[in-house]
Amino acid sequence: MAQVNALPRQHRPDPLRALGVVALNGMFDEMDALGVLRHAVEEILPGDVAIVSSFGADSAVLLHMVSKVKKDLPVYFLETGKHFPETLDYVETLKTRLGLTNVIAIQPDPADLKRFDPNGDLWETDPDSCCHIRKTEPLEPITEEYGGWVTGRKRYQTVERGVLPHFELTSDDRIKVNPLAHFSDADVVAYRQEHNLPEHPLYQSGYKSIGCAPCTSVVAEGEDPRAGRWRGLNKKECGIHFDFNGAIAKPMVAVEKHRLFKDGAFIADPFHDWGEGDDAATAHYTHVPLPVFLEHRETFLANPHPLGLLVSPGERIEDVKDDLQRFASVAIKFPAFTDGRGYSTARLLSERYRFAGEIRAVGDVLADQIPLMRRCGVTALVVTHEPTRQALAEGKLAEVAIFYQPVGLTEVPVGTRPYLRRAG
């Protein structure tokens, strides 16, 4: 019998682990969903596995199996604040009916909602960021507590899921378990009827895959069951899942770590880089290169969505001084440790133009530079250098306590009389 040891909290990728997962997939019949779940919970990851459930159209089937294997298995429900009322009622119905004793609601961080989605309408303009804030971000720290996760995904739901196995190994050596991978829609219905399971109240109304209310619509006869999710958009997944073929999304922990450091912590970054083909009229949460903004200035000014500005060395912030209030964030590029022109741009923004929005440093941001960047007005940092990330996270940056060349309106050089210094 194939055996895959529970994931240690600190680990190195183990090539034999991948072979173990391959062996696991060969152990079970296509329809042996209960056997897959039982083996995962009792043999592969005892005490180190949990389930994420949407409590959607098909959730009763897998949750019924959970009740047969381990009624107190942790079941995490992402309470995004955007669910149908019927879904919230369904959570209570299944908990009672199946005797589940460990259903845990996870909610988005109120601070993230206040900052990134204060009006609750981010889903209209940027559903990926909405999903990130309301689903991926709250779930990520929970996933780090477990060596594996059980999902309700099935091959038939989308083309992308058509090669889904029972067991997956993510790039960080965690195990995804998909007991229903080989179930068809007919299998789901038959199982539900055989065990007299309550169906989601919206199922008979044509909702075949049910997520957040604003992004879920009725599915027509013959359509992909998930066609009603994010209809009309090039989006099939919320970002919390990963299939071994890499076609759906990156693994949660393998997604690039939060790079934005602000207000003392690494946080989710709602902004994206400007990409080829982006439209000035519809861009949102994008740092627009300064030359691009100048070229399409009137269109950007008419654009109602939040925007940022990207300033590279040699570009003049003075050229957009009258439009700075249009931007929620200004990103200043520091392409190399030896290129200090970004400091001047930061000082112009903070001192001359009194820019009240976020001033962020991007590019080659290293620990030795950060105290200087902060003195020049930088309030946020995009950091990829791991030692610098560690120093920031632990509050161990070297600070500049004595300086001879003051910046701003408050610093005074050592050995001088403050009243003799001129501010401007």
UniProtKB/TrEMBL annotation:
Note on how the cofactor is bound: Binds 1 [4Fe-4S] cluster per subunit.
Cofactor: [4Fe-4S] cluster
Domain Phosphoadenosine phosphosulphate reductase: 49-217
Residues the entry annotates as binding [4Fe-4S] cluster: 130-131, 212, 215
UniProt family annotation: Belongs to the PAPS reductase family. CysH subfamily.
Uppermost EC category: oxidoreductase
Subcellular localization(s) per the UniProt record: Cytoplasm
The protein's name: Adenosine 5'-phosphosulfate reductase
Biological role: Catalyzes the formation of sulfite from adenosine 5'-phosphosulfate (APS) using thioredoxin as an electron donor.
The protein's annotated pathway: Sulfur metabolism; hydrogen sulfide biosynthesis; sulfite from sulfate
Residues forming the catalytic site: 238
E.C. no: 1.8.4.10
